[in-house]
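User: What would this chain look like folded?
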Amino acid sequence: MARFFAKGVLDPHTERGVRFVVAVAAVLMVGLPVKAWDTAPLCAFEPPPPLSLPEIAEPETAPMCVLPEPSPAQDLSAETVRESWEAIRLGDEDPEAALLRMSILEEALPRLTDVFLVRRGELLLSMGDARAARQAFANALETPSDSEIGLRARVGRVRALLAMGHRDAVNDLTALLRRYPDLPEEPQLEFDLARMREEAGAQSDAIRTYRRLDIRSPGTDVARQARERLNVLRAEGVEVRALTLAERVARTEKLVARGPLADARVELAELMEEARLGPTHRAKVYFLAARIARHEGRWDDARQLLQRGQGTGAVVGDEDDQARRQQRAENLAQ
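Assistant: Here's the prediction, encoded as structure tokens.
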């Protein structure tokens, strides 16, 4: 076809030339194999590998939507409540058993919630759980109660703060003692304060408080705890100064007045053998020994001890004390 154009037989720009080209093309296409459609995909691609997910382990714990089985109902029979009340009142159980008793009483006697909250706080404090004890005392203070229970809750709350080493403990203790100047729990609170200071590294302050408790309240459980702490500190190499003779006489005077008398007898026997006692302290020791003898009905011993005390020539006590002592000596002499 190009030869025809080249020789000028046909002009591709003329109508005749265009018809010739179309006719030749039609002839050529007739001879080619032609399909009505092609089944091959427009674009070939490899199928992706099957999707594999990691295995999910079974949960070790039950799902949150599963409710736990309810705890069995407590025995609130009259006999159980009575036994629990008596056990709590006597305090002859260990703290953990007492707490179980307490839960029975709290459910059976809701009107006494404040009483049980205070007792719960005291039990928790004895178990060393100061934070839980503090919360129990705080709950008790928010519950309507009488003045005695409210005071116990206030004291317990301060004791819990001291056991925790809380920054507000000292201020709250000061405010409590200012509000209740004759508080019977003051020695226990002082001991708790000394323990807090000892734990904080202020051993000198703690030792002073321990010594003061031993002198002022020698026959109490708090004083016994204070002496134990002093012994522990001595064993650890901390210098703990012994009581002076004057402090020993003052301590013995408290033992004679408040007991136990067995401890007072031991202290008096040691002091009467002490050569370093001055006249005033020696006279006081004799008078204290005479007091015990008179209490026990040992009249001859009492008369002799009074005479020995008066023989020191020391003036002990005020004029009323001296007059009473003279009257006793005269009565014993008859």
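The CA atoms of residues 210 and 228 lie 9 Å apart. If you want, I can go into more detail on any region.
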